[in-house]
Amino acid sequence: MSSKITNAERRRVQRQRRRTLNIIIVAGISLIAAAFILILVLQPVDDLVPITPQTYPVPAEGLSIGNPDAPVLVEVFEDFQCPSCKQFSDAIKPQLLQTFVYNGIARLQFRHYPFIGADSLRAANATMCANEQGRFWDFHDIVFANQLAQNIGAYSDRRLEAMADQLGLDVAAWSACYDEDRYEVDIQADQADAGARGVTGTPTIFVNGGRVAQNDFTSIAAAINAARP
Hints:
- The chain is of the alpha+beta class.
- The chain is about 55% helix and about 10% strand.
- The protein has a six-stranded mixed β-sheet.
- Strand 1 and strand 2 form a beta hairpin.
- Helix 2 packs across helix 8 (about 215-225), helix 3 runs antiparallel to helix 4 (about 135-145) and helix 3 (about 120-130) runs parallel beside helix 5.
- The radius of gyration is 24 Å and the shape is elongated.
């Protein structure tokens, strides 16, 4: 009889410990979620890295740079949270512009593939709204200039609005577009096209529809030279 009581008591204690552990786990998850939300809300906007808007010697209209009739089209699928995309933007894009775009050989086309997280989608939406004011590439540059760790609120609503203000956009018009998520369908269309073409990461580059195996300038240049007339 004493053994049965002991076993029953042991089971009761084990159940109580499991309940306590579950409460601790739930509380911990709640605290992490609250901290994440707080980061999104309070991420400072006075530490933004400013940019000097670039002037292009060729048409920079919409999401493309270069002569619309250029014989070679270079498409780049990117996510604004992707460190390799920032590297592409900072180091490889200028080489492509100087070597192939400014002389009319190629046209560079940005394509959205925001797969990393919510910050990616917010940044994509923000750049499309800047495009309404003819400032896609300026917003593209300031977003990459302010890239931080992934999904920590670097592209929170407040910070993106501060970027729009810093660039001198009509913030009211930009905000109306942004709050409406006006270009959600367009961004999803890019993602769907990327998926159909086998894109699983960023940056992914296509030259006249053919995928470039490597993201370095030498590989892209070789693909462009092979595709040009």
